[in-house]
Specification:
InterPro entries: RDD (IPR010432). It comes from Neolewinella litorea. Its main location: membrane. There is one protein chain. It contains 12 helices and 4 strands. By secondary structure, the protein is mainly alpha-helical. It has a two-stranded antiparallel sheet with strand order 1-2. Helix 2 crosses helix 4 and helix 10 packs across helix 12. It starts with a strand and ends with a helix.
Length: 244
Amino acid sequence: MPSVTIHTTQNVSIDCETARIGTRIGAWLIDAVVLLVAYLVVLYTAEQFGSGFNREVALRLGPIFWAVLYFFVSEWLGSGRTVGKRLLHLRVIRLDGEELTPADHLTRALFLLPDVLFTAGTLALLFITTGGRSQRLGDIVARTVVIQDDPAADLSLADVLTIRNREQHRARYPAVQRLAEADMLTVQECLLRYRRYRNAAHREAVQLAGARLAGLLGIDPEEAAADAEQFLETLLLDYIVLTR
């Protein structure tokens, strides 16, 4: 499955699985239904109670306006997720690991016009299927990408990217600073693989990594053994806070 590497401002690289084309189309269809229902409700209300309502103008320009408005507002307020993306576990993120801005959301929404509305989706499909990062034109311009957002993972991409300072996360194991960045990237990869493929082999790898790191850092082995997954997550977050 295609993936993209996000290089965060904390110099941590995170591999994310890009959204499948079928899932993106499914999310779009769900959003289209939500958008159509909302538009019909507004249109009916305007016809019944609006003064000076021009039905012809509303039918020609209304769908375009509402489509742009819907995707802009829903992705902005939904932290990169519309109704369809939320239901199918997709999320829009920035390639530089920073938080999405209103300008990013607006750019993506406006480029829906050439990507989808004016070309019946063919331009978006062309860019997504031929590009290395599965980006449509709006994603390329806004420097964003749509990823699979695994709801089962406790340590989500958002958890890592929103750590900015010591006030947001209190480090528990200061000794983690003795480790090299390559060590923590291995910890990160170990966690991500276990949460994507929860089988006995990956569970054992997490437990062995926890025990090994506890020994290196002089931490009570019982802390790592009690919940190796949580222990490695804490070490990773501590390292980011203490070294960035």
